[in-house]
Amino acid sequence: MTRADLVIVANRLPVDRIEGPDGEPAWRRSPGGLVTAVEQVMQGMDGAWVGWGGQPDLDLEPFVFDDTLLVPVSLSREDLRDYYEGFSNGTIWPLYHDVIATPEFKRSWWDAYVRVNRRFAEAAAEHAADGGFVWVHDYQLQLVPQMLRELRPDVTIGYFHHIPFPAYALFAQLPWRRQVLDGLLGADVIGFQRVADAGNFQRSIRRLLRYPTKGDTVTVPTIDTTPRTVISKAYPISIDADQFLELARRPDVIARAARLREQIGSEKIMLGVDRLDYTKGIRHRLKAYGELLADGLITGEHVTLIQVASPSRPGVEAYQDLRDEIEITVGRINGDYSTVETTAIRYLHQGFPREEMVALYLAADVMLVTALRDGMNLVAKEYVAVRQDNTGVLLLSEFAGAADELGSALLVNPHDIEGMKDTMMRAVSMPVAEQTRRMKTMRRKVIENDVAKWGKKFLADVNALRPREVGE
Ligand code: G6P
């Protein structure tokens, strides 16, 4: 049995299953943010990654891919319905995003969540070296830290929460609120995106479990030994800025951006890039843009909106409804305001490779990030990173975690449609000197606080608790 010093546990493996050249199934690195983030931390370490292979009933043995031992966790169709689409994305996701959609509380979903979390914890327990470090990721696996601690009291456990942690009054709705808090408190270090998330978590701990908290620590009583101290604090995640800059300097990407601009033909391009998710405020953005066209303040020759909405969680009803709504709205706006020569909204329900995304970022004068609630929003940071000439405007929701660091963006409340319309107008007509001033400040922040620094900060706190350092 291969055992690793560093074990990552996440709902998904960092690879996608594809059809290889010979028609046989093969694996390809998936382009996600978490993969890049953790890859940096894993470099030079003996690492394993526990996760789901992306398809139902994939019963596979662990295998090595790019020097990492991948440990697939099998999920049946029923697990996917009740654990993934159900409790993770029908209960926790809407509840933790401030109830933008209504969370459903179903006991059968909770049972599946417990069952599947145990499966992940067991796989991690099996593959962690003696005294190793296990790093659990995100809301799908909140019970894993405690389950793992029971199985392997010798390992150090970290947990990073990529999405918001809600205010007490919302979290308190969850029928299994105590179990979730206990599950998380199995970790030694619990990381959140924003200071406000860590504050909400600690408030729930005090109110529901009555454990004392002080600064960044929670004191957890234990039956027979001295109380455990758990660190819970904010570690805002970031991007691999160098990797994005490298792409932005590639001649083929630059040429592609120029071609896009030319083909689109309008004076200005506004861009939205999101998973098709109700937390992203796509409807609010379309409403504001549609009204500007209706008011005659902009025309299709003047501004084009490109909206990339990558397909997401199509088995969940709220996502199906959202897709219908967005596509009706796009159709209406285009029907009313496109011309034979111009298209008001170019809507793409597709995912694109990173090169194409960077070309779009380079082509766009204004980037729209209007999330109603978002843990961080890395698209905002990606846009800023690639704008090497310091032009371009970021219109950013104050409800995205990125707003804490990117205060020089044009901050908006996406619920305020009039405010969004005014800010969009300001964005498309912003003088270059102002664009430069704002962009410079933001770029400095994103480039200095890249994902490598994020990983180092988290690991530094983990290592402070351990007899030997991770990676030694
Ligand atoms: C968010 C979550 C991730 C999740 C991703 C894609 O960023 O924080 O944990 O993996 O969305 O969602 P999916 O359900 O397709 O994994």
Features:
472 residues; alpha/beta; Rossmann fold; ten-stranded mixed beta sheet; six-stranded parallel beta sheet; 43% helix; binds 6-O-phosphono-alpha-D-glucopyranose
Would you mind describing this structure in some detail?
With 472 residues, the chain is an alpha/beta fold. It folds into two domains: 4-237 and 452-465, Glycogen Phosphorylase B (Rossmann fold, 3-Layer(aba) Sandwich); 241-448, Glycogen Phosphorylase B (Rossmann fold, 3-Layer(aba) Sandwich), CATH 3.40.50. Helix content is 43%, strand content 21%. It has 16 helices and 18 strands. The protein has helices spanning 33-42, 77-96, 107-127, 144-151, 168-171, 177-184, 195-209, 241-249, 251-264, 282-294, 317-337, 354-363, 378-386, 417-428, 432-448, 451-463, and strands at residues 4-12, 15-19, 25-29, 47-52, 63-65, 68-73, 128-137, 156-160, 189-192, 213-214, 217-220, 228-234, 268-275, 303-310, 345-348, 366-369, 393-397, 410-412. Helix 8 crosses helix 13 (378-386). The protein binds 6-O-phosphono-alpha-D-glucopyranose. 6-O-phosphono-alpha-D-glucopyranose binds at residues 11-12, 138, 162-163, 312-313.
Percentage of β-strand residues: 15-25%
In CATH, what is the homologous superfamily of the largest domain? Answer: Glycogen Phosphorylase B
Major sheet characteristics = 10 strands, mixed
Radius of gyration: 23 Å
Assembly state of the chains shown: single chain
**What is the highest CATH level, the class of the largest domain?**
Alpha Beta
- Separate helix tally: 16
Shape by Cα distribution = globular
Indicate the CATH architecture of the largest domain: 3-Layer(aba) Sandwich
The N- and C-terminal alpha carbons lie at a distance of 21 Å
CATH topology of the largest domain: Rossmann fold
Strand adjacency order, main sheet? 5-6-4-1-7-8-9-12-11-10
